[in-house]
Design goal:
Length: 289
Amino acid sequence: MIDLGPGALATAADAAAVDAEIAPAKINLALHVTGRRADGYHLLDTLVTHGGSADRVSVRRLDAVAPAGEPLPITLTIVGPAAAGLEADADNLVLRATRLLEVEARRIGRAIFPVALTLEKHLPIASGIGGGSSDAAATLRLLDRVWGLDLGRARLAELSLPLGADLPMCVWGEPLRARGIGETIEILPPLPRFRLVLANPGVAVATPAVFRALTVRDNPPMPEVPARFADVAALVDWLAATRNDLEAAAITVAPAIAETLAEMRSRPGCLLARMSGSGATCFGVFEEK
């Protein structure tokens, strides 16, 4: 890794140097809706893993100077097969994550430098696998490293919550159980190795529309997660006693989800098929490649 720490000299080689971070899909293997707060946020209990397809965020040092007291010059370029419909404007989660970390760096008195970011987008938008959240989380991990802040994932997860309930989960990027609105996280031991197939019917699903379609908002939480799953069969047996409480509501919004699940379940070797998040992406668990 090329040193891009605070105080590094801006040489021609530094200007072209690139570091990168993978932004994997977030898959809700189980998702229970257990209540609703007075402010409208829903309470969740979810088992999350990360993998499958991924976006990629890369960074290089930008040859620019920030006037004293002004925000850093930051640029964002979006490329890739799923880039259509995304804008590199102030509302983009990657840029919001960058500005959030810039504020924290100034708060703790650390010198940082302008950067040019590139988001290589592969995960479909509004698809229930946390694409935007994972992009922002990867940006936080990446800039924590290249800016030499060394805040660590626990602090980054804490900082990220105002950007969205999925952000802390994506910052950790490990198997975990998340409760509350996503802020209470329990990191789990590695899950047994299994094959995961993701299928998206090409329909963008707005999360608010799915929550509006919910008929029951106070479901039981997940059963206790075992300290360790012996194998994929034990994992699937445990998952069979869980649910995605958003699945039925999402199907009313996007009926193609039901067709995707039926197709997945018809495949030989499919041990479990379920929707992730608020849809429309579905996953299938397979023991063999």
